[in-house]
Design a protein that fits this description.
The protein is α/β, with parallel strands linked by helices and 161 residues long. The protein has helices spanning 63-73, 90-99, 118-121; strands at 13-19, 33-37, 59-62, 78-82, 104-108, 126-129, 150-153. It has a single domain (13-153), classed as Aldolase class I (TIM Barrel), CATH 3.20.20.70. The chain is built from 3 helices and 7 strands; from the N terminus they run E-E-E-H-E-H-E-H-E-E. The protein has a 7-stranded mixed sheet with strand order 3-1-2-4-5-6-7. Helix 1 (63-73) packs across helix 2 (90-99). The longest helix is centred in the middle third of the chain and has 11 residues, at 63-73.
Amino acid sequence: MEIEEGKNSRITTIRINSIREEQSLCDGPGLRTVIFLQGCNMHCSGCHNKSSWDPAGGSEYKITELAEILRKKCPNKKLTISGGEPLLQAEAVEELCKELEDFNLCLYTGHELNEVPQSILKHLRYLKYGSFVESKHTSVLPYVGSSNQKFIILYGGKNNA
């Protein structure tokens, strides 16, 4: 990841696995565009997105460039950020959230709630947290893959529609 030099250094690039071409009804409330970030160190048994595990895989984008792409692919401004594990690129995720401050954002993480930085939480409308546990797989609970995971409504973000 590229880091801008200077007093206010910040991450300027992000590595993604893919952007889902069809909008989803399963990755948070409403018809949502889903972006899968690259890199995961959890390697959950039964993972549906193993191609996202390698942190050097996927494609690297400037965050501003990716935000422009997402504005075109996501006209209703409902975006779910998934992975891989998005928190492996926490600073880049925070920068992307700032670029998309007028979006209704949802984050899917295998980490626990207390491990999600407040600097990211404040931009989110929804959060799915908890690792995927194959023995607790569910297709009945909305927006989660296993019954130990939690999906919560937050009141952050600007676009709460």
